[in-house]
Design a protein that fits this description.
alpha+beta, two-stranded antiparallel sheet, 3-stranded antiparallel beta sheet, 2 domains
């Protein structure tokens, strides 16, 4: 069910929180990002629930950080840095987007596995892994 007033409140709160508290590892211009939010707001207010969530995720994708995500109340809210004890950043590596470890917390699962900042995440349990493409607003991927 679409609730434009509630959605506007969510979008405004996200914008405020990002500008005040986001760790800008991707060197994002917040003025440009805020304009993108403003340009998408009217569409997001009237979109169906899935399109609204995807649109918000797309805006957050532009922030180029693994630790910024839009969670629904019924979704798994465990953040990557809490699960593996590390933060990741999408980088262009060997011609393809890859996840690079930025911070690895002491005594975390990542540290116990021998991972250090700068290492690339290539596979999980033998399955190749890469950052999802950032298809929103004309971006080809979320690499920097």
């Amino acid at each position: 069910m679409r609730q434009p007033a509630a959605r506007l409140k969510v979008i405004s709160r996200i914008k405020t929180i990002v500008v005040k508290h986001h760790f800008n590892i991707g060197k994002v211009d917040y003025s440009d990002w805020s304009r993108a939010v403003d340009q998408q707001t009217s569409t997001l207010l009237t979109a169906d629930d899935n399109a609204f969530e995807e649109g918000v995720r797309g805006l957050l994708c532009q922030l180029k950080s693994s630790h910024t995500k839009f969670y629904r109340s019924d979704a798994n809210s465990a953040m990557p840095q809490h699960v593996i004890g590390a933060t990741l950043r999408s980088v262009l590596g060997i011609g393809a987007p890859r996840w690079m470890f930025l911070d690895v917390f002491d005594d975390s699962p990542a540290a116990c596995a021998g991972i250090s900042p700068g290492h690339l995440l290539l596979a999980v349990n033998g399955t190749p892994i890469a950052p999802p493409p950032c298809r929103y607003f004309g971006l080809a991927n979320n690499t920097m």
